[in-house]
Amino acid sequence: MQPDETLLRLEAVQKRFGGLVVLNNIDIAVGANELIGLIGPNGAGKSTLFNLITALYTPTQGRIRFRGRDITGTAPHRICRLGIARTFQLVRTFLTMTAFENIMVGAVYGGGGRVRHATAAAEEALELVGLTAKRDVRTAHMTLSDRRLLEIARAVASSPALLLLDEPMAGLNPTEIQRMVDVIRRVRNERGVSILWVEHKVDAIMKVCSRVIVLDHGEKIADGTPREIVANRKVIEAYLGEPAA
Ligand SMILES: Nc1ncnc2c1ncn2[C@@H]1O[C@H](COP(=O)(O)OP(=O)(O)OP(=O)(O)O)[C@@H](O)[C@H]1O
């Protein structure tokens, strides 16, 4: 990958909490329009990585660059304006607001406060995730699946170049999972958004992503195509907990 094609670049990133090294020496490059799966056993450091990219945490070592610009230590609200959006493992929607109002929060924020532009962006995002019919339903009355889609719509409405998805399929049934897969593909294909997707449902990642990164105990142990990943000895050991035969 040429440097000018790289959207996000992590260079030797380390995160330590006191004496505990949670991520160590992480190098990751995300190109334009990539759909990358980020997997790893519990406690591998996946959420911490997202918290570093979105500046909720500051790395103890290393640099993070977005579109060539060093964003290490940038304030979280600036990260959003620069074009990085995320969803959360535990859905964070405003329960007393309608679906549309929730999305407007993202649209106004990402659009720099212009309401007319934000309204159009919010309507388009609702349509993209298939929630137009639930536009005026309060989030408190929506299913978990719809709330997860709503979070994606809110993120998309802020017009990001990079979207970080934190376990969007957790708690969904097979039908809902298929719907989520379709939406993730649409976000990437129709919006040209690069996606870094943390997921425990590894089979979905292997089917949908062209590239997969694996973390284990805070180290990046593999980065390649799904075919390469399933044959990788370190990955097999990390998941099975014992040396592969
Ligand atoms: N604020 C914190 N202070 C101390 N330790 C932390 C903090 N945040 C995370 N950790 C530790 O860092 C390690 C990685 O946690 P993280 O949540 O990033 O893993 P994960 O791969 O997202 O796990 P899961 O798949 O279970 O969500 C864990 O050992 C966790 O206890």
Automatic annotation (TrEMBL):
Alphabetized UniProt keyword annotations: ATP-binding, Nucleotide-binding, Transport
Alphabetical list of SMART domains matching this protein: AAA (SM00382)
Family annotation (Pfam families): ABC_tran, BCA_ABC_TP_C
CDD domains: ABC_Mj1267_LivG_branched
Molecular function as annotated in GO: ATP binding
Domain of life: Bacteria
Gene3D superfamilies assigned to the protein according to its UniProt record, in alphabetical order: P-loop containing nucleotide triphosphate hydrolases (3.40.50.300)
SUPFAM superfamilies linked: P-loop containing nucleoside triphosphate hydrolases
PANTHER family assigned to the protein according to its UniProt record, in alphabetical order: AMINO ACID ABC TRANSPORTER ATP-BINDING PROTEIN, CONSERVED COMPONENT OF ABC TRANSPORTER FOR NATURAL AMINO ACIDS-RELATED
Entry protein name: ABC transporter ATP-binding protein
Organism for this UniProt entry: Mesorhizobium opportunistum
Lineage, highest ranks first: Bacteria, Pseudomonadati, Pseudomonadota, Alphaproteobacteria, Hyphomicrobiales
